[in-house]
Design brief:
Shape: globular
Number of helices: 8
Bound molecules: flavin-adenine dinucleotide
CATH superfamily of the largest domain: FAD/NAD(P)-binding domain
Helix content: 25-40%
Largest sheet: 9 strands, mixed
Number of strands: 20
CATH topology of the largest domain: FAD/NAD(P)-binding domain
Radius of gyration: 21 Å
Number of domains: 2
Order of helices and strands: EHEEHEEHEHEEHEEEEEEEEEHEEEHH
Length: about 375
Amino acid sequence: MAKTAQVVVVGAGIIGCAVAYELARRGARVRVVDRRAVGQGATQASAGVLAPFLSAHEGRPLVELGARSLAMFDEFVARVVEDSGAPVQYARGGTLEVALADAAMSGLRATARACAAHDIRCDLLGATDVRRVEKQLSDRVAGGLLVHSHGFVGAVELAGALQRAAGAYGVTFTSSTAAARVTRRRGGLRVELAGDSIACDRVVLAAGSWSGQVEVDGAPATPVRPVRGQILHLGWPASRLSRVIWSAECYLVPWSDGSVLAGATIEDVGFDERATVNGVQHLLAMTREIVPEAGAAWFRAVRVGLRPATPDELPVVGPSASLPGLVYATGHYRNGILLAPLTAEIVAGLVLEEDDDPALGVMTPSRFGKF
Ligand SMILES: Cc1cc2nc3c(=O)[nH]c(=O)nc-3n(C[C@H](O)[C@H](O)[C@H](O)COP(=O)(O)OP(=O)(O)OC[C@H]3O[C@@H](n4cnc5c(N)ncnc54)[C@H](O)[C@@H]3O)c2cc1C
């Protein structure tokens, strides 16, 4: 017999989990389906860095979206922790973007000017001061930009806590269940699964890189492609890093247990989720370039994820014009963790017909055609 739900969310990555939680908090009856377990798509590989102002000088809409979402994070994490009873690693110790040569300092100066213009607290540091702030940095580091409001969150923990918090509001999660198609039915929508289906009023498509594989009645395939990212989880030999270190080729995220994430590659290789010798070698070389002592680090894991990228690198969030009742929440590329609170708020407002956020203008699916 066909199952029913008010809202079906397809995909239990950080986006699907955050959306389901927010919908349920507002009173909706929600069901989440995923073909894997919760958070086992791109989310499990994510570094969880929350740093919208690293590209402030580019002045893109993404910086504004990121800034809005970052401003929501303290309250978001506190609420999810309270509703779930699960701890979530979360720190706002800033990011230190480093330049490995004098020439790269001009980029940091431009970012510092853009931050200052938006009242974002930051410090531009020369070679001596940057090593005073982070002692382990290599002699090659010519300077750095410290942006105080940035930070990171444990992405896997956050997804797990969101699942529990959503569960406390009655959301049901079904794993090992792939959605094949979303179709019309009299008075609503139907999500077709293998040998089964769910009748519902609304559907949120949050299947990350795989969103284009879920057929939507009357619409072309969602314009999202996978971009592979490999990241290392290292036992850290040296003294602790105080904050996220960011360079053009690599970043380091110091976890509270003393280990470090070193990421990440950016590779256009389709749906290939394997870790490679080249990827690991590149990350190790770049890590040692910033912190030479990292040569004594030991392996805890190599993680691989497929970031959902769109042609303009902005998310696809908004209602479908082809299939009323379907809302897209995908294409978050390198910023899905950062943008989760904002996406959840915007999508919940849309699904429950409470409000249309102005940010939908830059994220609308219709910029790519008749979706
Ligand atoms: C190495 C790496 C580092 C990153 N670092 C950062 C960072 O520092 N900060 C940041 O903000 N972002 C970062 N990101 C990006 C971030 O991880 C992603 O943007 C985010 O995880 C996307 O979340 P999602 O829920 O859209 O997709 P996913 O997490 O991929 O979830 C999609 C889910 O949909 C499910 N699914 C797929 N097809 C179907 C189907 N047919 N039916 C049902 N379910 C389906 C999948 O199984 C999966 O669980 C990083 C990504 C990588 C790979």
